[in-house]
Amino acid sequence: MADVVATVLEALAGEPAVKAGAVLGLEPATVERGLGALLPVLLAGAARLFGESGAQPLLAMAEGALAGGNPLDRLDSVLGDETARAELLEDGQAMARNLMGRNADGLEAGLASLLSVQPATVRQMAALSAPLLIGGMARASGGALTGESLGALMSSARESLSGQLPAGVATLIDPSWAAGAPAAPPPPTDPQPQGRLWLPWAIAGAVAVAGLVGLRSCQQSGPAVDESRPAVALGEPLDQTVALPRGIIIVVRQGGAVDTVRRYLATAEAAGRRFVIDNLAFDEATNQLTGESQQTIDGIAGVMKAWPDTRIRLIGFTDDVGDAMENLERSQARAAAVKGALVESGVEPERIEVEGRGEAEPIAPNDTEEGRAENRRVELEVIGK
Fold first, then answer.
1. Side-chain half-sphere of 231: how many Cα atoms within 13 Å?
2. Which residue blocks in 185-314 are alpha helix, DSSP H?
3. Does residue 82 register a pLDDT over 80?
4. Per-residue pLDDT band at 13 (split at 50, 70, 90)
5. What three-state secondary structure class fits 382?
6. Which long-range contacts (CB under 8 A, 24 or more apart) does 237-244 make?
7. Whole-angstrom Cα distance, residue 174 to residue 24?
8. Three-state secondary-structure class, residue 222
9. In the chain, what are the domains?
10. Which residues are CB-contacts of 92 (< 8 A; sequence separation ≥ 6)?
C-alpha cells in the first residue's frame, strides 16, 4: 500500500500539485491533503473489487488509464493540455466510482466536509486520483500490470489497509473488513517538514473522518454502524476575504464556485469551463433569489469586475418532476434572475448570456430528493476571458 500511494504522491509533489490546484481551483496544500486521503480509499476499493471479481475489471481500467502511457510519466500533458486532461478526468470519474463502490456518495461527502470543499470538487479530485493510482500500481509492478502482479499488489494492499483504515472506513469500502479493524495510529511526536501534508498518520486521520461522516449518511441502506465510535464534529466550509485585481475585495467560500472561478480566471487556461454555482437559493415555487444568495452574487460580480474581459453564460437546469416544458421555462427564468441580480450589482448586461435547459444534463439520479436537489442548479460557463 505504502509503495503505490507514496509513488503517486511523490510524483505530484511540488509543481504538479500547483498545476493540479489550478485545474481544480484549490490551493496546492488542499490538493495534497485531498489526494492523500483519497488514494488509500481508492486502493482499498481496488482490493475489494479484485476480491469480488478477480483481476479482469482492474486490468480493463489499466488498459484505459495506461493507453497513452503511464499518466505519472506525462503529468505535464495530463495537467496542462486541456484535451488530454478532459479525457483522463472523464475516464477517471467512472474508475473512481467503481473503486469506491456503492458508498461512494458517503465517502465523498465526508471528504468534502473535511477539506471544506464541495462534493463535486472531491469528485473531480477522485477522477484525477484514480488513473494516477493505476499508474502507481503499474510502476510498483515494474511498468506493466498482469493478473499475477495485481494479485500480489492487492494482497499486500489488503493486508496493509485492513490494519490502518479505521473500522468505519473499512466497513464503507468492504463490510468483510469491519471486524477487528484497529483505529488510525496517532500522529508522531516529532515535527515533520512543512508541506508534506500526506504523511501516513495524516492520511489515516483524514480517511477516518471521511469514513465516519460517510457512515452517518449511509446508515439507512449500508452495513451496520458501530454506534460506540465517537461522533466527529465537522466545520462548515470557511469564508475568506480575497483581494482581486483592480482593487476589488470579495468574500468567498473556500473551494466554492466563486473561489474556483476566480482562480481559473487568473490562469492562462482558455475559456470554456463550466461551474455549478453553489449557495444559490430561490424562494419556493418562484424565481426570486433569497437573501442568502447575495454573497454568491456579490462574489461573481466582483470577479467579473476584476477581469473585465470575462463573458459568461448562465445555464439553468431543473429536476425531472413536472411538465418538461414548464421546467424548461423555469430553468430559463432562474438563470435570468441570476443575470438580473448581477446586473443590479454593476455587471454590464451584454457580458452575460442566459440559457435554460430544463431537465437536460442531470448530474445526479432524479430518484432521490438529494439527487433532484443537485439537478436544480444554475451553471456558469466562461465563454470569454
1. 4
2. 200-218, 257-265, 294-306
3. no
4. confident
5. strand
6. 237/116, 237/117, 237/118, 238/116, 239/295, 244/302, 244/303, 244/305, 244/306
7. 29
8. coil
9. 2-218 (no CATH), 239-384 (3.30.1330.60)
10. 65, 126, 127, 128, 129, 130, 131
Report the alpha-carbon distance of residue 287 to residue 261 in Å, rounded. 24
199 to 1, 88, 195, 206, 235: CA distances (angstroms): 13, 26, 10, 11, 22
The total number of residues shown for the chain amounts to 385
For residue 230, the model assigns a pLDDT of: 32
Give me the torsion for CA of 114, 118, 123, 126, rounded to 10°.
-40
Number of Cβ atoms within 10 Å of the Cβ of 267:
12
Give dist(CA 364, CA 283) in Å, integer: 22
241 Cβ contact list (under 8 Å, min separation 6):
249, 250, 251
Lookup: cell for 222:
449500508
Phi, psi (rounded to 5 degrees) for 144: -140, 145
At residue 332 the predicted structure's pLDDT band, cuts being 50, 70 and 90, is very high
Place of cell 488542499: 30
The residue type at 140: A
Query: Rounded to whole angstroms, what are the CA distances from 136 to 22, 271, 305, 346?
Result: 22, 32, 43, 49
In angstroms, the CA 284 to CA 287 distance is 8
pLDDT at position 49: 87
- The Cα–Cα gap between 128 and 308 comes to 31
pLDDT for 183 beyond 60: no
Q: How far apart are CA 117 and CA 125, in angstroms?
A: 11
Q: Is residue 150 within 8 Å of 58, Cβ to Cβ?
A: yes
